[in-house]
Amino acid sequence: MLPPRQQPCAAGLQTSLSLVSSDLHLSPDAQEPRSNSDNIRESPTESASSQETWPTADAMMKKKMENDKADNDCPGQSIIRRVSGADKISCRDIAGERVDIISEKMQHLPDDFLDELKNGLRVMLEGSGGSQHREEFLILQKLVHNRSDLTAKTLIRAHRVQLEILVAINTGIQAFLHPSISLSQTSLIEVFVFKRCRNIACQNQLPADDCTCEICANKSGFCNLCMCVICNKFDFEVNTCRWIGCDLCSHWTHTDCAIRDGQICMGPSFKSGAGPTEMLFRCRACNRTSELLGWVKDVFQHCAPAWEREALTRELDFVSRIFRGSEDPRGRKLFWKCEELIEKMKGGLAESTACRVILMFFQGMYYAKHYINSPLSFSIGRIFKH
């Protein structure tokens, strides 16, 4: 589960579609990960400086009235400014040319041309153009990553749209080009130089919480509040078994990543440290283990009644995969119960009935004393108290 700082997402916005592998998001020393989110929350509260770079509703209305007046005064004259071939710039120009030169040119270009430039890059990031768009984006990203002159000092001189395009190319996240996203010039620069989380719904200064662990110190742009310590991606799902949070070090891991990398496996009982083994999660950030049975029970007790049919099926599948290799009798019983309910729901079993059955199953498993001191049992309390 993601930290409680993540908020509900705004409908209709798509935060990311990075078209390249995370290996291409590399600084000289460490990976710069990409995201895989499809939704974002409302734009975060910005500093006063952001109001200086984005028009207010009053300013937009005033501009419209001025344009309408121009139409009335000069009915035979088009107000659309034609941009000559010599004046036009492209995303390649922005990616490869000096910041001050491009900024000066963009000062004299009409807004509709700049909007068209941003929309073209957004389409490219969406990937609807197939391999041609992918190849063009790879060229743009290579141009940006190979430059040493793109620093916080030089980017201060960038045109607003120029900076948005550079950030979108560098991160592979199209949300920075969306008209509803209004980040300050300073925030955009900090995202570009890996001093601020590129997750628009997070936006914390990096390293988050001044974490000094090896992952936060060595992975450029990594945020321990919202990114997976294995794949370095973020998304906006909360109240789910999709994410496992470690309360010992406050880092997060995708369940799928943990399973794939062997971070979920059988091990000695968390509390006793000896005797029968059970299914455990080992956090890559701190290398400490936490038991999973009590954590799954907590997630379902708090969240399952609110899940719709598709969500409940997905969560049962997550739990099934977590405990598929369990050698502990309780873990095996949970695995088979999840498999049974998934099949019955495919056959038409109502989600309310399935939810009631799995909750009764958890209630019938006596392990309260065993999981009460587990770190993962506390992660649920942290999520739901916010």
Automatic annotation (TrEMBL):
Domain of life: Eukaryota
Biased composition (Polar residues): 45-54
Every Zinc finger PHD-type domain range: 227-287
Pfam families per UniProt: PHD_Oberon (PF07227)
GO molecular function, one term: zinc ion binding
Main location as per UniProt: nucleus
Listed GO CC annotations: nucleus
Entry's localization field: Nucleus
Region span, Disordered: 20-54
Biological process terms in GO annotation: maintenance of root meristem identity; maintenance of shoot apical meristem identity; regulation of gene expression; root meristem specification
Transmembrane spans: none
Keywords assigned: Metal-binding, Nucleus, Zinc, Zinc-finger
Protein name: Protein OBERON 1-like
Gene source species: Populus euphratica
